Amino acid sequence: MKWNNKNERFVVFLDIMGFKDRVARTPMEKLYEQLVDFNTEIVNIIAKNKSEEVQLAQFSDSIVLFTNNSEKESLNNLSAILCEIMKEAIYRNIPLKGALAKGLIVCDMAKQLFFGQALIDAYLLEESVQFYGVAVHHTAEKDVVGMKEQYRDIKIPLKGGTVFHYTLVWWLNHQDRVKENLNNIRFHVSDSPRKYIDNTINVMS
Q: Which domains does the chain have, with CATH numbers?
């Protein structure tokens, strides 16, 4: 399959939570091993889903997924991959938050050159998310309507307040194990980071 460097596509921007604290408290070699191992797992998840139309880019604590186009099949594959990544992140004590958007993006994997309004949209919405989850930007909202196994219009906590927003329900059918791992993460954080744990459990309820 030919990769389109310039195309309308879906993009997901994910942020590893508590990364600065990890850098401060974790030996460099150990942190490097953790990130390489998690990156390898993401690559394996993409490969397992046989999804040539999804590409991965990672910069420090930012993980970005791009589709080759904006077709429904690409969104379905991306969503399945994203659900697995979110669960695996919680199981590894590497919680993520993020956002999904759609639009024209230059994604030149060979040159590692990425830009476009949709990438900015995903980044800005991710900045507002205050739980371990993935919110859907309004540019992609019509595309996820009806995908009830992956997305639902539910109340989620954002910086502007708790509002209805289409959200990836990555925890579906795995609530008990996810909650157990969320409570394990609680032993590793104090103060405001704990609100993300509480918020996530509330969103799942």
A: 6-204 (3.30.70.1230)
